[in-house]
Amino acid sequence: MPPQNEEEWKKQLGPMSQKKIDFFNKIYNNAERASKVLGVPPSYLMAQNAFESGWGESKLAKEQNNLGGVKVGASEAGAMYPSAEGYGATRRVEVSRFGAYPSTDAFYNKWAERLSKKQYEDARKAKTVEDYAKGLKKGGYFTEDVGVYTKGLRGLVKDFETIMKNTPAMDPSIIESRMAGAKE
C-alpha cells in the first residue's frame, strides 16, 4: 500500500537522498508528459536527465536549463560549454554549442521533439533500459561507451521507479505541494 502522507512517503524511501527526491519533484510532470508523447517510461527519461546533468547540478543545467546535454546548431539558442566526448583512449574535451532554454518546461518540449525524430525510433521502441541506451547511441545522442551509459542509467531508473512506486497514488495535491516546494 502506498504511503498516505509526506512523512510516510519519505520513510518508505529510506536512505534515498533529498537531492534525488528534489530532482524528481522538479522534473516528474515534464517527464510524464514527454513519456506519453514518446512511449518511453518516465523513469528512463528522468534517469537520462539525472545522468546527463549530474542531478541538475551541472553548470549547463543550472545556467541553461539543459538537463539532457543537448547540443544545438548555430541557428538555435545556445551557449558554448566544454564537454568530454568519446570513451577510453579516444576521450577528449571539446567545446560545443549546447541548447539554452528559458525553463525546464521549454527544455522538455524541445527535448521530446528531438527524441521524436526517426533517428531515435529504436530508443522509443525499447522495452528495457539497455535497449533504450542502445537506441540513443544508434541515433547519435551520446559518444560514451554504450555499456557505461547503460550502467549509469540502470541504477537511476531503479531510483526513480522506487520514488514513483512510493508516491501516494500520485495524488495531484501531494505532487503539487512537492512541486511548489521544489520551485522555492
Would you kindly provide a written description of the structure presented here, covering whatever features stand out?
- Helix 2 (18-38) crosses helix 3 and helix 7 (129-139) crosses helix 8.
- Strands 1-2 form a two-stranded antiparallel sheet.
- The chain is built from 9 helices and 2 strands.
- The longest helix has 21 residues, at 18-38.
- The chain has helices at residues 6-13, 18-38, 42-53, 59-64, 104-115, 121-125, 129-139, 146-165, 172-183, and strands at 78-85, 92-99.
- It is mostly helical.
- The radius of gyration is 17 Å and the shape is globular.
Write a concise keyword list for the protein shown above.
184 residues; mainly alpha; Lysozyme; two-stranded antiparallel sheet; 9% strand; globular; disordered C terminus
Summarize the entry for a quick read.
With 184 residues, the chain is mainly alpha-helical. Helices cover 58% and strands 9% of the residues.
Average pLDDT reading? 83
Number of domain modules: 1
What distance separates the N and C termini?
A: 30 Å
Contiguous runs where pLDDT drops below 50 for at least 5 residues? 177-184
Beta-strand fraction estimate: 5-15%
CATH architecture: Orthogonal Bundle
Secondary structure tally, helices: 9
Shape: globular
The strands making up the biggest β-sheet line up spatially as 1-2
Radius of gyration: 17 Å
CATH topology: Lysozyme
Derived structural class:
mainly alpha
The share of residues in helices is 55-70%
Element string (H = helix, E = strand): HHHHEEHHHHH
Number of strands: 2
- CATH classification class: Mainly Alpha
Q: What summary fits the major beta sheet?
A: 2 strands, antiparallel
